Amino acid sequence: MKRLKYLLIGTFMLALCAPAVAQDDNAAVIDDATKLIKSKPADLEDQLKPIYKKNKKNEDVLVAMGRAFLDVKDTVNAAAYAEYALKANKKSAPVFILLGDIAALNNDGGQAAGYYNQAIYFDPKNPDAYYKYANVYRKISPTEAVSRLEDLRTQRPDIAVDAMIGHIHYVSNEFAKAAESYAKADRNALDEHQLTEYAMALYFGQKYSESLEVAKFGLGKMPRDAAFNRLAFFNCTDLKDYPNALMYADALFNKSDSAKFSYYDYTYYGNAYNGNKQFDKAVEMYKKALEQEIDNNEKRAGVVKQLSDCYLEQEDYSNAIASYQDYLKTLGNASANDVAALAQIYIQYADTLKDSTRNEMFRKAEQVYIDMEQKYPDALEYITFMRARVNSYIDPETKEGLAKPYYEKVVSMIEPRAEKSASDNARLVECYRYLGYYYLLQMEKDPAAKETSTSYWNKILAIDPNNEIAKQALTLTTK
What pLDDT sits at residue 479? Predict the structure, then answer.
């Protein structure tokens, strides 16, 4: 009895060991063949012949050799060995996955998806086939790709399908869906790449607090990870938590492994310093950003504008103006609003000055509007209205009536309209108020001015019956 028992145990152990030995043999053969293929000797074909002859019925070795060829982008030989493996086993999922990978490398997504489907048919529990199918099919239909992964969930409830679905949505730029799928996954089971995509998806969806939470979770595992430090830095900056933003910025730039920096990182650093009222350091970072490679003028212009805004924040108007002019030049095809903003900086600057230097800045603002007239004819009403305002700033007591011709021109543009917007009416009220006051001041010299002034105040009341300024002015014109 004992002898029978030991015989059974021995047989059982032999059964366990046999595949392991075969597996070890395969591993050694595969390793040798792979090294040979990757070294690309002149007599490669001759050296591979004995390996092939010994293993022509061993699909594992043949598939591995096909993969080695695929790794060096030799799709012809990869396909040949896939066919050899298919002869060894026509129902092998790994063979069809290899064929699918070859088709994918040849940019034939439809054929690749077909091979992956065959792999799923022969091995419904192989997650690799589902994932690869979803990855190629997402370009055609992300919905169908996700549906295939849901099939995997049925077959393999132990697989983190939600993370796979999150990735498919992420690479398809469906960030809300990506975040939603990743949220269903066990966060502890997500790898660095998946956690980064999760945090990025939330960031792109402007869910900064949630993105920060995921980034901090990642930092709990990998405190020197550049991606997580960067995301924590960006999120804190956008949340206006500038002290913590600067802490994470320091971690990114000085305490992260293998970190590479772009103009965008330096720009955000500038934003964090700017928000923390450390303007000199902010300027330094924006300038540092402009020293980096920036792939188009629009992005470069954006950094230059932030530099200008930073100067403006600290009321350094000379540098703000110079930087804004550089912004317009870099942008090239600036809009009317972009150009008009330069005039507004001159106006802000003028408000800090006195006497002739004050009016000099107002004149520079007006010159911006004058220059705009030919370039932006569709904005003529706005330009004329702003010239009226600037001239009223130069002549605050309306002694010279500098703004009069411009306000009259605006009135002539708006009044004929059958339907007027709220903005139209607001502009008319401002025009009428100026003109009404101008003629009110002329009444002593010109009796006819009384009637003109009265007409303007009544026009205001027709638009705004409760306008107190118009009511008080009418008491003056009726005396």
Answer: 65
Contact 443, 449 (CB under 8 A): yes
CA distance 336 to 372: 7
Give pLDDT, residue 7.
Answer: 35
| Contact present, 362 and 346 (Cβ < 8 Å) | yes
d(CA 202, CA 131) in angstroms, rounded, equals 23
Instruction: Give burial (CB, 10 Å; 0-12/13-18/19+) of 305.
Output: buried
pLDDT in the model for residue 29: 82
Q: How far is CA 382 from CA 273, 310, 373, 413, 461, in A?
A: 36, 27, 10, 11, 23
Interatomic CA distance for residues 164 and 443, integer angstroms: 81
Q: What is the pTM of this model?
A: 0.78
Spell out, as residue ranges, where the chain has pLDDT lower than 50: 1-22
Q: Tell me if residue 395 falls in helix, strand or coil.
A: coil
pLDDT given at position 24: 59
Nearest by Cα to 164 from 176, 154, 150: 150
Which residues are registered as beta bridge partners of 225?
257
Contacts of 457 (CB under 8 A, 6+ apart): 432, 436, 470, 473, 474, 477
| 257 backbone dihedrals φ, ψ, rounded to 5° | -85, 135
CA distances from 268 to 233, 246, 273, 278, 318 (A): 8, 10, 9, 13, 24
Residue 111 and residue 199: Cα distance in Å, rounded? 34
Residue that has been written with the tokens 């169908």 in this structure:
144
